[in-house]
Specification:
Largest sheet: 2 strands, antiparallel
Order of helices and strands: EEHHHHHHHHHHHHH
Low-confidence stretches: 1-27, 321-329
Number of strands: 2
Radius of gyration: 19 Å
Distance between the termini: 46 Å
Structural class: mainly alpha
Strand order of the largest sheet: 1-2
Helix content: 55-70%
Shape: globular
Mean pLDDT: 79
Number of domains: 1
Number of helices: 13
Amino acid sequence: MLAGFPLAGEVLLFWQTGDRFTMRPYETSSHIPLTGMLLLVFLCFLWGTNIVSIKVSNVSIPPLIAATTRSVVASFLLWLYGRLVDQPVALPRGYGRHGLWLGLLFGGQFLFLYWGLSFTDASRAIIFLYVQPLVTVLMAHFVLPDDRLGPAKAVGICLAFVGLILVFGSGSRTLGEWYWVGDLMALGTGLLWAATNIYVKRFINTAPITHFQTLFAQLFFSIPVLAVGALVLEWGRQISPEPIAVAALAYQSIIVAFVTYLAWFRMMHQYPVSRLTSFTFLTPLFGVILGGVLLGEALTLFLWIGLGLVAAGIYLVNRPADLGSRVAS
């Protein structure tokens, strides 16, 4: 077996016991070290780039076929990597229903995201998508007993809501007639992502599973959801992938869905979900800038103001000071 097989950005620790290597037990902590913070910033940059890459692949590859391919490739790579480091990826016996729920939520996210980006700009979609941290905090208030909504979080949610209204009402020369459909789909993606976060956090607190199994369940069980969506909505569509579209899909499958998600779920097992989501306000910033630079999308004043309000809201609902007072109380 391979000990600590290098996976870009993934924080995996192994030690030798006899003739095999075993993952160390998770050491949960409320403090994210500097290396973890730097990793989170890098993940946010890669996720911002991912939105642009989906927009690129959608040009010559039907979006739901691309989303299905992404889950298939990432599932296979995760299964292969699990074998290399001697880590099981299948859920333990008796937990199959959780896999089905995770697959429905995860598959629904990317059905909306990939299809929605066919209608709207990447720089708009990523702002609506990152309503996720705000909804996660709202859901956590009612579902997770140690994650309550305080005054600062409430103000942050209100700011972000105003920001979303500004973004939705802004227009630009690059938008098509049905841009609002894509905006709503991106918003739906954020809602499903938040529901997935809360489900995973409750699930992993009561189940003997690793981040390998958490991610594999989402990727593998999302395949039929996305495949059915592709059959129903994209039957008969021509596939003529250009090299740049294939490269973009490879980036989505290997770098994002395999490498970055494995790192993210490793951290979700180790740190509070609210502390992790405090960093995600950087992703829409990266996405908006890259959408303008790489895709030539119009970046209007209202778009920037809306982005600023959403980012401020995400920061307020997850700021360390608020978290610290919550823990102290």
